[in-house]
């Protein structure tokens, strides 16, 4: 199935109130905030959005609210539907299609993990059947899922067997494998999204034209500049900007894991209060947040 979106897509945060309820009211202004800063696509219920920490009703409501919001901002909407039971994944796929999502993104089965590419393809066939009119992408993030199949082989097989297959989100540091995915993606006309913020410049040099990166929520102009400079042949400038981004990220994540630290940064650097992460993620202490805040005062 043809999926035309290419470029930068922000994996959005899910805002929580003090009582850890989802704050849906923030979504329209959040969408507008990203659109005004050059981010033309959003991924909801992903890792950054703590999708696997939401129940199925909350995930449906988040999808519905974002579907309404992007009608105004004209952003592309991708919905992550994996990370729960097979029956719930199918229900979420059907719901996302009913809400006119532009694409679905799906994790592998997280307990009965696929051991072969064919196992993964067979799993995604069931998902695709539930939403036959919506492009489906696979979420490759082995550091979380411990599913580390060869993505070039998987893409080739998925293109043959899954009618709605439209690409992958490649959240991995193995750029040799990533480059092979980009090549077969061009041959098969499927999207390959980079999911590793710290590798954007190198990945762009290798042919990645799209990314789903958490830091697009905070510093989209910086990532856009990195890509633009690579594409214009200004690799030295691009590498200097990448070093700036990577240094900033490393200064932040040494205070905690990815989602809690990035959520704290979003609270510090934007007009929005995203709240704390939902358990089992551990929020940062006040001292950690104050330490991170000094990064932005320099």
Automatic annotation (TrEMBL):
Coiled coil, from the record: none
Cellular-component GO terms for this entry: cytoplasm
InterPro entries, per database record: Aldolase_TIM, DapA-like, Schiff_base-form_aldolases_CS
Active-site residues annotated for this sequence: 139, 169
Keyword Signal in annotation: no
Keyword Cell division: no
Record-listed pyruvate binding positions: 48, 212
EC number: 4.1.3.3
GO molecular function annotations of the record: N-acetylneuraminate lyase activity
Record keywords: Carbohydrate metabolism, Cytoplasm, Lyase, Schiff base
Transmembrane segments: none
Catalytic class of the enzyme: lyase
Catalyzed reactions per annotation: aceneuramate = aldehydo-N-acetyl-D-mannosamine + pyruvate
Residues in the signal sequence: none
Pathway: Amino-sugar metabolism; N-acetylneuraminate degradation
Subunit structure comment from the entry: Homotetramer.
Protein name: N-acetylneuraminate lyase
């Amino acid at each position: 199935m043809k999926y035309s979106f290419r470029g930068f897509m922000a994996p959005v945060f899910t805002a929580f109130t003090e009582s850890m309820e989802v704050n849906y009211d923030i979504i329209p202004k959040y969408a507008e905030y990203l659109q005004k800063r050059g981010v033309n696509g959003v991924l909801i219920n992903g890792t950054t959005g703590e999708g696997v920490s939401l129940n199925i009703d909350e995930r449906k409501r988040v999808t519905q609210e974002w579907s309404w919001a992007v009608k105004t901002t004209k952003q592309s909407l991708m919905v992550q539907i994996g990370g729960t039971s097979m029956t719930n994944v199918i229900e979420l796929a059907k719901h996302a299609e009913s809400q006119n999502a532009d694409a679905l993104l799906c994790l592998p089965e997280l307990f009965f993990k696929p051991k072969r590419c064919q196992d993964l393809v067979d799993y995604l066939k069931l998902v695709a059947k539930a939403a036959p009119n919506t492009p489906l992408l696979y979420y490759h993030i082995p550091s979380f899922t411990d599913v580390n199949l060869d993505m070039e082989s998987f893409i080739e097989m998925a293109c043959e067997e899954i009618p709605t297959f439209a690409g992958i989100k490649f959240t991995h540091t193995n750029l040799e494998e990533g480059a092979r995915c980009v090549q077969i993606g061009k041959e098969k006309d499927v999207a390959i999204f980079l999911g590793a913020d710290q590798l954007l410049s190198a990945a762009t040099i290798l042919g990645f034209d799209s990314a789903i990166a958490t830091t697009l929520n905070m510093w989209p102009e910086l990532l856009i500049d990195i890509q633009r400079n690579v594409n214009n042949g200004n690799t030295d400038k691009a590498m200097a900007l990448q070093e700036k981004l990577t240094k900033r990220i490393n200064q932040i994540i040494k205070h905690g894991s990815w989602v809690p630290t990035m959520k704290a940064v979003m609270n510090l650097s934007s007009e929005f209060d995203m709240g704390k992460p939902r358990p089992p993620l551990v929020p940062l202490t006040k001292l950690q947040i104050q330490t991170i805040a000094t990064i932005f005062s320099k």
